[in-house]
Design goal:
about 375 residues, alpha+beta, hpI Integrase, Chain A, elongated
């Protein structure tokens, strides 16, 4: 209605910070402005957000995690988002009002985390989570701009990719001959699968006669439990041809697993997993890392001796399980495979990821390509 002072007034019942419902008055220079403010206030209330100006970022993030993130995200991703919010965002800027949050507040958050010793990639992840949450607030009409998007993320230094040489790879596989998990290392080096993908391989996705392998599932730890789930990205789902070395390793592994199944008897749990425990359940990713470390030490590949506090000889490793994936890519590129082929094999999201990750291999390939131009055009260039 039009007031005596010339302003328009509207009223709407909304949710307050203490959980009660009260009538809120809004004002505007025109009737349309007052109506828009009423609609905005009602929208906030319907989303479960208090309409008063004391709404804190922490309250909004809790609502966003519950109503938006949990239904949309995979369990492992949601767990990481929740941990990021609880450990980093809320303790630092959670008491800020949502509608008063500024780019300076976000910069302070990022600087505080950097000064606390967090890696640049972790700090960048904190910003990404906050940016995602505030993007939803903008879509819902709760904010006019996303201040997290306006704050620049920290620069992430490019780490040098470590890859085994063919000699080291063959030494590793020779040392693993007869090991229960030898097929894991063969597949990791030949096909470049990620750890979760290796542990999620199913026999139903492998055709040894046609020599194909389907990558579709992964094993993740969520809330302390191992979960077998579909891979999240479309590019991660892929069917790969198998070289003979992989077929032979899988045939040996299948025979060994059949014997383990007979020994386990009723204790066997059929999860259709290629790589599992001796009773068929998913392998713990951390145990796979331990097995790989033990193999490196036995093979003498990528390890350095160190003296322990009690005077004994220990070992430090320079090679991670994930580096077998990098080794596969380097082997493919050095054999003349195009970056596009490597992208498909590794399940990268785009060709830029492949090119940026393995840029260290490209100068050698460029040199080989230019040598090929000499062979092609060398006879006529001087004519």
């Amino acid at each position: 209605m039009l007031r005596k002072d010339g302003r328009w007034q509207g009223a709407v019942y909304v949710l307050t910070s203490d959980g009660t419902i009260r009538r809120k008055f809004v004002y505007g220079k025109t009737g349309a402005e007052a109506t828009r403010k009423m609609v905005d206030a009602r929208k906030r209330s319907d989303l479960g957000l208090p309409a008063d100006a004391t709404t804190k970022l922490a309250d909004y993030l809790a609502q966003w995690l519950r109503d938006v993130a949990r239904p949309q995200l995979r369990p492992r991703t949601f767990e990481m988002y929740s941990r990021c919010v609880d450990r980093h965002i809320v303790p630092t800027i959670g008491r800020k009002r949502l509608n008063a949050l500024s780019p300076a507040d976000v910069r302070k958050l990022l600087n505080d985390k950097t000064n606390a010793g967090l890696a640049p990639r972790t700090v960048s992840y904190v910003r990404a989570v906050l940016r995602s949450a505030l993007s939803q607030a903008v879509r819902d009409g709760l904010l006019q701009r996303n201040v997290a998007a306006l704050a620049k993320p920290p620069r992430i230094p490019r780490s040098e990719v470590k890859a085994l040489s063919p000699v080291e790879a063959n030494k590793l596989l020779a040392t693993a001959r007869g090991d229960r998990l030898r097929a894991v290392w063969v597949i990791a080096l030949s096909l470049g699968l990620r750890r979760s993908e290796l542990l999620g391989l199913s026999w139903s996705g492998i055709d040894l006669e046609r020599r194909t392998l389907r990558v579709a599932r992964g094993v993740q730890r969520v809330d302390g439990h191992l979960v077998l789930d579909e891979l999240k990205s479309a590019t991660s789902h892929r069917t790969l041809p198998l070289p003979h070395v992989v077929v032979e390793a899988l045939e040996v592994h299948r025979t060994r697993q059949a014997n383990e199944r007979l020994v386990a008897g009723r204790a066997w749990q059929d999860c259709d997993l290629v790589f599992c425990t001796e009773i068929g359940t998913p392998l713990d990713p951390r145990n796979l890392n331990r097995s790989f470390r033990a193999l490196l030490i036995r093979a003498g590949v990528g390890v350095d001796p160190v003296e322990t506090a009690d005077g004994r000889t220990g070992w430090t490793t320079r090679v991670r399980l994930h580096d077998l994936r990098h080794s596969c890519a380097s082997f493919l590129l050095s054999q003349g495979a195009s970056p596009r082929v490597v992208m498909e094999v590794l399940g990268h999201s785009g060709i830029a990821v492949t090119m940026n990750t393995y840029a260290h291999v490209l100068p050698t390939l460029l040199g080989d390509a230019m040598a090929g131009m000499d062979d092609l055009l060398g006879g006529t260039a001087g004519a």
